[in-house]
Amino acid sequence: MFTVQLTLGEQTWEAEGSSIKKAQHAAASKALSETTLPKPTPRPPKNNVNNNPGSITPTVELNGLAMKRGEPAIYRPLDPKPIPNYRANYNFRGMYNQRFICMSTHGTG
């Protein structure tokens, strides 16, 4: 699991995803819905542009918003959070199907 921190102006958001790209999209989506920054007025649509709103990812939309405001959207991968109460098994004795051959030290005969 990847965690990303997004900073836009003075505001910060964190999000997780199974890849860095998915974590960035989640952080951008969260920022777009929660930001208190004023959004710029939309331009009239161009005729030759794909009018499918689902084709623009939240990351692209947020980066465009940040560019119009003259502020950078800064994405930083965060260190993975440690697993709570994890203890390494120092009593590990090998695989369950590992075979051991015991050699006899006593002579026969």
Automatic annotation (TrEMBL):
Keyword Thylakoid: no
UniProt KW keywords: RNA-binding
One Pfam short name: dsrm
One GO CC term, this protein: plasma membrane
Gene3D superfamilies (alphabetical): 3.30.160.20
GO molecular function, one term: mRNA binding
One record GO biological process: protein localization to synapse
Entries under SUPFAM superfamilies matching the protein: dsRNA-binding domain-like (SSF54768)
Keyword Acyltransferase: no
Superkingdom per UniProt: Eukaryota
PROSITE patterns for this protein: DS_RBD
Region ranges (Disordered): 13-57
Residues of the DRBM domain: 1-37
Protein name: DRBM domain-containing protein
Species in which this protein is naturally found: Amazona collaria (yellow-billed parrot)
